[in-house]
Amino acid sequence: MNDGKQTAARAVILFGHGARDPAWAGPMRRIREAMLAEDPATPVELAFLELMTPTLAETVDSVVSAGAERIAVVPIFLAQGGHLKRDLPEMLEAVRGAHPGCEISLAPAAGEADGVIAAMAAYARACLD
């Protein structure tokens, strides 16, 4: 419903650790594809902490260049460990400084969401069958 207010262009960045094996990012790509199938108008991109590209800064630059004014960074991690407590806040500070006109929010680690915990518990139970 359009109430006459213009909505800022938005994007989602799925942020993962990264690995030497490119196949490691397969589940993140599947999450991206599922999100785009549900809402093709909202860009969803991947970014990685290390060992893989693109970096968070590169992905933020890309979505901002494409017009994003609001970005949600969603860590695809099981929990808030050292990388999310120390490394990611420093990265976010740098990208926010590089793009002061863009609102960049940080979601909690995906693995801490109630729905994700319930899905993992259901999966673990199903492994008994």
TrEMBL record:
Alphabetized UniProt keyword annotations: Lyase, Metal-binding
Q: Name one Pfam family in it.
A: CbiX
Q: Looking at the record's lineage, which domain of life comes first?
A: Bacteria
Q: Which GO terms describe its molecular function?
A: lyase activity; metal ion binding
Keyword S-adenosyl-L-methionine (UniProt): no
User: Which Gene3D superfamilies does this one have?
Assistant: 3.40.50.1400
Q: What is this protein called?
A: Cobalamin biosynthesis protein CbiX
Please report the organism this UniProt entry assigns to the protein: Thauera phenolivorans
